[in-house]
Amino acid sequence: MASGDDSPIFEDDESPPYSLEKMTDLVAVWDVALSDGVHKIEFEHGTTSGKRVVYVDGKEEIRKEWMFKLVGKETFCVGAAKMKATINIDAVSGFAYEYTLEINGKSLKKYMENRSKTTNTWVLHLDGEDFRVVLEKDTMDVWCNGKKMETAGEFVDDGTETHFSIGNHDCYIKAVSSGKRKEGIIHTLIVDNREIPEIPE
């Protein structure tokens, strides 16, 4: 740069909501897949200053300065459904700390394992755009790119169909019995009469 300084240049003087330069105490980052999308949770913990900062999708949710107790927890909400999230701060030894994330009272790992049983997720490309479609099996709610879709259910000979639209594309999720007790119901996404493969989350 001509001026010789190392500060980043942003068009129209727009700076990002936060910059990594400021996040010198960043100790943990988690990606959490919810029905309305994948959310990035970042946590700063200043072990000398006692600072705690939580960012969700780049937006500051919690900021506490000069906390004398370095262990504890921070609770906040994530996503459109306002899921309760808690970061636990535990001392491991000396000045080493462990950071764990809980979603709705479960460890992130347990929450995601349970979620894989209660949701189906598909990713597809239509009209030059990527779409992430999530079916919540317990409620039969359908989400697409963070928005809950208007749906219409219909009984058919071999199961049910949940109809919705993405742009001008006709979509439905077909639910049929696997015939096996352990497998239960099989959900298939059909877009413009074409089956879309499911992605594991």
What distinguishing features does this structure have?
disordered N terminus; 2 domains; Lipocalin; 201 residues; mainly beta; five-stranded antiparallel sheet; 17 strands; 5% helix; four-stranded antiparallel sheet
Outline the secondary-structure elements.
Blueprint: E1 26-34, E2 37-45, E3 52-56, E4 59-64, E5 72-78, E6 83-93, E7 96-103, E8 106-107, H1 108-118, E9 119-126, E10 129-136, E11 141-144, E12 147-148, E13 152-156, E14 159-166, E15 169-177, E16 185-191, E17 194-196
Structure in words:
The protein is mainly beta. It folds into two domains: 26-113, Lipocalin; 118-196, Lipocalin (Beta Barrel). It is 5% helix and 55% strand. It has one helix and 17 strands. It has one helix spanning 108-118; strands spanning 26-34, 37-45, 52-56, 59-64, 72-78, 83-93, 96-103, 106-107, 119-126, 129-136, 141-144, 147-148, 152-156, 159-166, 169-177, 185-191, 194-196. A five-stranded antiparallel β-sheet has the order 13-14-15-16-17, with no helix packed on it. The protein has a four-stranded antiparallel β-sheet with strand order 1-2-3-4, with no helix packed on it. A four-stranded antiparallel β-sheet has the order 5-6-7-8. β3 and β4 form a beta hairpin. The chain is elongated and about 65 Å long.
